[in-house]
Every structure is written in C-alpha cells, then in structure tokens.
Design a protein that fits this description.
Length: 454
C-alpha cells in the first residue's frame, strides 16, 4: 500500500527512489505524468485493484492545474452535451465516446466527492465554489494516497527499453529500467513548459513509429505590431465587450492589450484559425467590433451629431469610448479617422487589425497536435505498442477555453485507465471487475466512486 500524502507537503509526498524499487515491488501499472489525466487514470486503475506508481519529473504534481486555478479554475461547461462535444472541432467524433462516458455532470459529481461543490456561472461555465484548484487537488491527493497510489517525483521518462520496460531517470541522475504490466502516458502537450509539459515525448514516440501531428500553440494571444505610442500608452489595458470576427467565426468577450498584441477569451477562441491563416498567408486580418450591441445604423445616427469643430478624441470620449478604444481605431486606420459618420461607424464595427501569428507555446494555454487518433484503439492503447495507453493533451485535439480542455483531460484519463485495467485483466469487456479480491495485486476489492469512475 502507498502512503497517505500530507496535503500539499509535496516535499514529504511519497518519493520512490530507483534503489528502493526491486523487481518484486515493481509497479503493476505505471502512469507517466501527474496532471489531471494521469491522476484520474491512476485513480481508476487503483479502484480496479492495480498497484499504481505515478512518475512525475517535476518536484510536485499537477502544476499546470494549479496555475489554471489562479484564474478561477473553469473546470467544465454546462451547455447541451451535443453542443459541448462539437467544440472539439475535427476531433469531436473521436473524443465523443470518452466525453459521453464521463460527461460534465460526472466531473461535477467527482468534485463534490472531494468536498468541492461547483456552480454554473452566468456564461454557462462551471467553477468550484472556492474558485481555486488547490482545495480540489489537496483532497484528490489524499484520496489517491488512501487508494495506495504512489508518487515517484523528479523521475524523468526516457522511453522504452528493447524488452518493453520503462526507461527512467531518478532524482539522483541515475538511469534505470522498470517493467510494468501496463503504462499510461499522460505527459501533456508543450504549452507553459516551465510547469512540466515540455513535449519531449514527441521524438520518443516518433522513433517508435507512432504518428504525431506537430505540436503548436492553441488558445494563445494574437500577435499585432502596435505603433510604439499605442504600445507605450495602452499595454495592459482592457477593452471590454468586443466581438471579434475572423472569416465566419466570431467570439465575444473582453480582451487585453499586450506588448505584442491581444489576449483574452475571444482572442483565444479564434487563435487556432488565426494561427493556421497566418501560417498559410504570412498574416491575416482580425475584425474588431467595439460596439456589438449597437447596430451600425444606430451608431452612425449617434455619430452624426458631432459638433463641426470638435476633435475626434474629444467627440469619441464624450460618446463613451475609452482612450484605449480610440487608440485601437487609430491603429486600425493609421491614415486618420474619418469625419463622415457612416464611415466612422463602419470602422467602429469592423476595425481591421493585421495579425502576424499567435504567441508561442511558452505562453499558450494549450497545445494543438499530438498522437494521431488512428494510432490508438477504442481504449486509447497504442496499436503499435500493446499495453501502452495515451491520455490527455498528448492526443491530437484542439479545444477552446471554457472547461473543454479539462473535461477532455479527465474523460481520456478515465478511458485510458479503464483500458489499462482491461488489458491487465482487472476489468472484463463490460467494465466489471475481472479478478476476485484475493487475486488482486494489493489484495483488496475494487472500490466504487460515482457511477462513472471505474
């Protein structure tokens, strides 16, 4: 049995050094990566009766999950499930079985079991009542410890040996191999690499013949070359309640001016389109509607009342436009703002900004690309590597912010954990326990959580 973790005393969490793991005590199932997908796969496996060790190369688990919690931890979304699944775009059909098997309500139930009630915000997004990730993670780590899950922190995954054993590097720099009955890879994508997801696994899997779609930034800021004056005056300033358009796609919300462009929910929602368009054409145009709730006709009528000698800035400020909004209009039309009311209304409703690309992986919220779905079966096992399963952001899907990323991480983590349990004979094809308690690796019966957990 593993030890129980003192809540957030990560320095005292269970640490398994290479020298302390002998063949007799080798993990029956190894999970590589301690983000939500890996943690959930480990819980599913432990409840099915497996002995589980989670290898994590950082000194503490779930660092990106904790970072997400700083913004309120939007854990999932309450919208209709069909609409929810459609948010995954090209990967919707592939992810649908996993999300339907562990839908948003199941994730909310899971949070409630850990003592974190959730609520639906005005936008339909779901948050924990505390608005934080730390209480949820604290309860989760405690429960994993009680289930016998062991953490091997500061252990780096180096790939697989010729005999299929895991190749690992411990905290002392010593390299070793460890046999496992099954392996769940949950190493994340490559966004925010300082938090743990570095994408180093791509080369390892490609070398094994696994097709991996190149990783690229998703849900990242748009790159706009501001004039020095605009950047100096308005960097860090919000521009509220805008409607962004790129082609037929639209997104509404608040955005923030940055030194290199724009960030915020509506920008992230269109970032994949902006990325691909800029990659193809070198640049693309993003249209900004600064008054989405006012028609162009009404706006032109209001602007036609301008006194003849009043300056643009004074008139627009008195009409309710912020200095940052006026500055953005000047960036969109540097040759000067039109005095004609119709033309000015058109600009306010369709301010064109030239976008040269999106911010890199080091600042992106998530990653597009990953292991191609054709490389895995219905249990997320690699077809070319029997016994090795893939979960979370390692898979080739892209999703907007709004709770869809975490939902996919939990849903695929569950699916990979169940698949590994089936592979090990702990669950039968119907998902029921396949071994009697006396034959389980840790001699205890499978435990049930809510109806979706195992």
């Amino acid at each position: 049995m593993g030890q129980v973790h003192p809540p957030f005393a990560f320095s005292a969490a269970v640490r398994v050094e290479a020298a302390h793991i002998n063949a007799a005590a080798a993990p029956f199932c190894a999970v590589i990566g301690a983000g939500p997908a890996g943690l959930f796969a480990a819980e599913v496996l432990a409840r099915a009766g497996a002995r589980v060790v989670i290898y994590e190369h950082k000194p503490s688990p779930a660092r990106k999950f904790l970072m997400a919690g700083r913004g309120g931890l939007n854990i999932t979304h309450s919208e209709n499930l069909d609409r929810f699944v459609s948010r995954y775009g090209a990967a919707a059909k592939r992810l649908a079985p996993f999300v339907r098997a562990f839908p948003p309500q199941a994730l909310r139930d899971f949070c409630a079991e850990l003592g974190e009630a959730t609520f639906i915000g005005s936008s339909g997004r779901v948050f924990p009542a505390s608005f934080k990730a730390s209480p949820l993670l604290r309860g989760w780590l405690t429960r994993l410890g009680k289930l016998g899950v062991t953490f091997a922190l500061r252990h780096s995954f180096l790939g697989f040996a010729q005999d299929g054993a895991l190749r690992l590097r411990g905290p002392d720099g010593h390299e070793f191999s460890r046999a496992a009955g099954a392996v769940v890879l949950a190493l994340g994508g490559a966004s925010w690499p300082k938090l743990g997801s570095e994408g180093g696994w791509v080369g390892l899997l490609k070398a094994a013949g696994i097709e991996v779609t190149p990783l690229s930034a998703a849900n990242s800021g748009a790159l706009v070359r501001w004039s020095p004056i605009f950047r100096a005056d308005f960097e860090g300033q919000p521009i509220k309640t805008v409607l962004l358009r790129h082609g037929e796609a639209t997104a509404r919300g608040d955005m923030v001016v940055t030194a290199k462009g724009l960030e915020g929910g509506p920008v992230y929602a269109l970032s994949s389109r902006l990325r691909e368009a800029a990659k193809t054409d070198g640049a693309t145009t993003l249209l900004v509607d600064l008054r989405p709730d006012t028609s162009q006709v009404c706006l032109a009528r209001k602007l036609s009342r301008r006194p003849p000698k009043q300056s643009h800035a004074t008139f627009l400020r008195r009409a309710g436009f912020s200095k940052a909004e006026i500055g953005l209009l000047r960036e969109a039309q540097p040759e000067g703002l039109p005095r004609d009311a119709e033309a000015l209304a058109t600009l306010i409703k369709n301010a064109p900004l030239k976008v040269s690309g999106v911010a890199g992986l080091e600042r992106a919220i998530s990653t597009a690309g990953g292991v191609a779905f054709d490389e895995v079966d219905a249990d997320l096992m690699l077809r070319k590597m029997p016994g090795v399963f893939v979960a979370g952001e390692m898979l080739d899907y892209d999703a907007p912010t709004g709770g869809y990323l975490l939902q996919a991480a939990f849903a695929t983590g569950r699916a990979a954990g169940r698949g590994a349990a089936r592979y090990l004979g702990l669950l039968d094809a119907a998902g029921q326990a396949g071994l009697s308690p006396s034959h389980l690796p840790n001699s205890r019966a499978p435990e049930a959580s809510n109806k979706y957990s195992v």
